[in-house]
Design brief:
- It contains twelve helices and no strands.
- By secondary structure, the protein is an all-alpha fold.
- The protein has one domain.
- Helix 7 packs across helix 8, helix 8 packs antiparallel against helix 11 and helix 8 packs parallel to helix 12.
- The chain starts with a helix and ends in an 8-residue tail after the last helix.
């Protein structure tokens, strides 16, 4: 375990040094948050009763989405991993006394958390200072905030485990770009990244409820605004935990099978 903690620290330290990129990201995410809220505001002014979420709750959802973007953006991948698989550099990784899946998982977690550490606090501060209903609402209670944190952590693990499956597909393809484009396009909609899941048709919501996509950023953000609460939140968190175990377990098994057919050419 200490080996993976050390690898996590190295990856975290390497990523958190890019403070200039973080400043640019903060400005971009604040601008995008304002733009998205103003867009939804235009629709709400036309007929607010036609929408499934209170506008203040929607604003909180958007600001949390921007603050923790790097934790949950499916389209963020470690390009070095794809390159190692394609050019044979993975041979060096297999020579390490580490489980490849766990090493990649720890490295990806570190990179995402380092980026979020630099960006989330300024975004949350600005959002909390905005007037109602445009700003970030404070948690209604300590208990609700703790439930939100638990769901946020499980959602993060779910995203990491899902992205690991995308890396593994590269063992079976000539290029990772096709899979990445398809996965990114589909998951941006299904995880609530484009629009919150409550805005989707009812039949689609019922299907998504039992998929890992529902357990990603959609769930913690809606728990924070108490759009999901009580027994529904408890059951959803249990399902989150189940998906974490399923995706990690399947990923580990698939990785072992993929490594059995790896052929490294060159010298």
């Amino acid at each position: 375990m200490k080996k993976y903690v050390s690898f996590f620290k190295i990856s975290f330290s390497g990523t958190i040094q890019y403070r200039g990129a973080a400043v640019a990201g903060i400005i971009t995410q604040l601008f995008w948050g304002f733009m998205e809220i103003m867009l939804f505001r235009a629709f709400y002014e036309a007929d607010s009763s036609a929408f499934p979420m209170e506008f203040s709750a929607l604003c909180s959802y958007i600001w949390l989405q921007q603050a923790f973007l790097t934790l949950f953006m499916i389209w963020f991948f470690d390009l070095k991993i794809f390159k190692q698989i394609q050019d044979g550099g993975i041979g060096y990784e297999l020579a390490r006394p580490l489980e490849l899946y766990d090493m990649w998982f720890a490295g990806n977690a570190a990179q995402r958390m380092a980026k979020a550490t630099l960006r989330c606090f300024p975004v949350l501060l600005v959002a909390s200072l905005l007037p109602e209903p445009y700003g970030l609402l404070a948690p209604s209670s300590v208990g609700s905030f703790l439930v939100f944190l638990v769901s946020l952590f499980l959602a993060f693990l779910t995203v990491l485990a899902f992205c690991m499956l995308v890396y593994i597909t590269t063992f079976y393809t000539l290029s990772p770009y096709g899979v990445r484009i398809i996965v990114t396009s589909v998951t941006e909609l299904l995880t609530g990244a484009l629009i919150p899941i409550p805005f989707l048709p009812d039949w689609m919501q019922e299907i998504l409820r039992f998929t890992p996509f529902y357990s990603m950023q959609n769930l913690p953000y809606r728990i924070y605004s108490e759009d999901i609460w009580g027994t529904e939140a408890a059951l959803a968190i249990v399902l989150q935990l189940i998906w974490v175990f399923i995706l990690i377990g399947f990923g580990k098994l698939w990785m072992k099978r993929a490594l059995k057919r790896v052929v490294i050419q060159g010298g």
